[in-house]
Amino acid sequence: MSDPRVDTRPDARSDARLSVFKTYKLYVGGKFPRSESGRVYEVSDAKDKWLANAPLSSRKDARDAVVAARKAFGGWAGATAYNRGQILYRVAEMLEGRREQFVREVADAEGLSKPKATAQVDAAIDRWVWYAGWTDKIAQVVGGGNPVAGPYFNLSSPEPTGVVVVLAPQESSFLGLVSVLAPVIATGNTAIVVASEKSPLPALSLGEVLATSDVPGGVVNILSGRTAEITPSLAAHQDVNAIDLAGADEVLAKELEIAAADNLKRVLRPQTVDSAQWFATPGTERMTAFLETKTVWHPTGSLGASGSSY
Amino acid sequence: MPTTASTALPLKDVTASDSTLRRYLHGLPGVDAVGLEARAASLGTRSIKTTAKAYAIDLAISMVDLTTLEGADTPGKVRALGAKAVRPDPTDRTAPATAAVCVYPDMVAVAKEAVAGSAVKVASVATAFPAGRAALGVKLADVRDAVAAGADEIDMVIDRGAFLAGNYLKVYEEIVAVKEACGASARLKVIFETGELSTYDNIRRASWLGMIAGADFIKTSTGKVAVNATPANTLLMLEAVRDFRAQTGVQVGVKPAGGIRTTKDAVKFLVVVNETVGEDWLDNHWFRFGASSLLNDLLMQRQKLATGRYSGPDYVTVD
């Protein structure tokens, strides 16, 4: 019996009909705009064969993305954790339905064999499910009641940091991307993703999946282009609360960290992750990196609770 | 230097009777709606950058009538607004003050106190704003009240019902009466509520009617209906004040109000002003923006130009 996961259809390109090329677009505020600048750049596969043109985002696209992310933040952070979990799970469901497309795009982008690309995509889908499960559990793990020396209840609960800029890993164009994006939005942040410069197509296609998964517009905004061109203005943007430098090289990371210091953004420094390590179960670090702790002191009313003598 | 509208009523014979007034207003050339909108849209495509942008932002800030017209206005909110009008960006003393604060008549005294000692004026809406559905006596009392409290400018609404019914003389006489109630001290802005006038022809007629009646300013909207100031209706009103000055020598100001929220929008309006009536109107004595959230965006853009990084709403006051 043949593996149902393997595409056995005849190659579409061998048919007589003309091939329909896809116009890859940005994903900003729930819509699919072209770059404001009108620019595109050529994306090629691992063997330097042309694949498609991707939008070459400008600073203004980045600014628009921040506006969209800020607008979406209140609704997304205010949604129940359970609801966010359902939506993240829905992303996994939708991805499952478009698995073959992503396998092809990942194989092209990273020069992988089909089985290896399939493993990447499967792991990425499972990662959405994993983080979907965490949405309503992270609060118990990192929040809770604190013992204090006084007649108070003292409760800590995690809250999302806000608008987070995510520089997606340059090498792992899909599994790496999902591994850094999902934890950011699972906890209620909104994200601006700067896709891998060399292989942005899986990221841009992910936008189409998110748009049909009940993820509210603006919660995830995906930009493609030159990482070094887009990110400095995002790192310096006063309305961005945190930045994940996963996809920045050493020189760029330093520059961005300096720019980010101006309004005390949270910065997650790049960690060296080889392609095998993306498969490992991630742990909660990427979620807690973009959480703030709110602590509330509440009087216990213990004087009244002791009862009266009459 | 043009004289002010209050010195003499131009086109006096036009207002001799309802029928002469109607004949005059309906004799105004019809508006080419497609051409008007295309012209306004094409002026909106101008690219204003660097030093020109910095100039436009400061000019726009100095033209803002910082407005709060809510049922929930408190003296505290009006005082906060007054402080913001006087010093829009407390972290940057080079930011110009706004032109005025715009409040309801009962808040004029509070606003006057809040901007005391500065050049910021106090404008008050009056005449049963925003509907204008009250007896003339009530409207005039409303105006006198605001003027007595120290309002420098009165924003009146016209009786749209009478206008749409064709009772132009009634609208005219009401504006004349309100102008008289304003006295010599207060400038009169006449609001047409363009969103309720249905056609561009009506906007042109209302503009001329207002100017003939002695308006110091003609203003698009109350900000309380679905369609407020648009580049097209503002362009139309600017053409009216241009033609009115050419005909009578009297210069009248224009104030688009409502729906102008971003710096980009404001700059588009300034381009329309410059290209239609020229530099004579590029001054807050002759052109104003009725707005509230616009000021924050102008300030954020100003900070962006000064520092090179995008600012955010955390760095301006929320009001």
Automatic annotation (TrEMBL), chain A:
SUPFAM superfamilies reported in the protein's UniProt record: ALDH-like (SSF53720)
Entry annotated with the keyword Oxidoreductase: yes
Gene3D superfamilies with a match to the protein in the record: Aldehyde Dehydrogenase, Chain A, domain 1
Keywords carried by this UniProt record: Oxidoreductase
Molecular function per GO: oxidoreductase activity
Span of domain Aldehyde dehydrogenase: 36-267
Entries under Pfam families matching the protein: Aldedh (PF00171)
PANTHER family listed in its UniProt record: ALDEHYDE DEHYDROGENASE-RELATED (PTHR11699)
Name by which UniProt lists this protein: Aldehyde dehydrogenase
Organism: Streptomyces lacrimifluminis
Upper classification of the organism: Bacteria, Bacillati, Actinomycetota, Actinomycetes, Kitasatosporales
Automatic annotation (TrEMBL), chain B:
GO cellular component, one term: cytoplasm
Pfam families for the chain: DeoC (PF01791)
EC number of the protein: 4.1.2.4
Family matches, as InterPro entries: Aldolase_TIM (IPR013785), DeoC (IPR011343), DeoC/FbaB/LacD_aldolase (IPR002915)
GO molecular-function term, one example from the UniProt record: deoxyribose-phosphate aldolase activity
Keyword ATP-binding: no
Lyase keyword on record: yes
Keywords: Lyase, Schiff base
Associated pathway: Carbohydrate degradation; 2-deoxy-D-ribose 1-phosphate degradation; D-glyceraldehyde 3-phosphate and acetaldehyde from 2-deoxy-alpha-D-ribose 1-phosphate: step 2/2
Highest taxon, organism lineage: Bacteria
Biological process per Gene Ontology, one example term: deoxyribonucleotide catabolic process
Catalyses which reaction(s): 2-deoxy-D-ribose 5-phosphate = D-glyceraldehyde 3-phosphate + acetaldehyde
UniProt xrefs under PANTHER family: DEOXYRIBOSE-PHOSPHATE ALDOLASE
Family: Belongs to the DeoC/FbaB aldolase family. DeoC type 2 subfamily.
UniProt protein name: Deoxyribose-phosphate aldolase
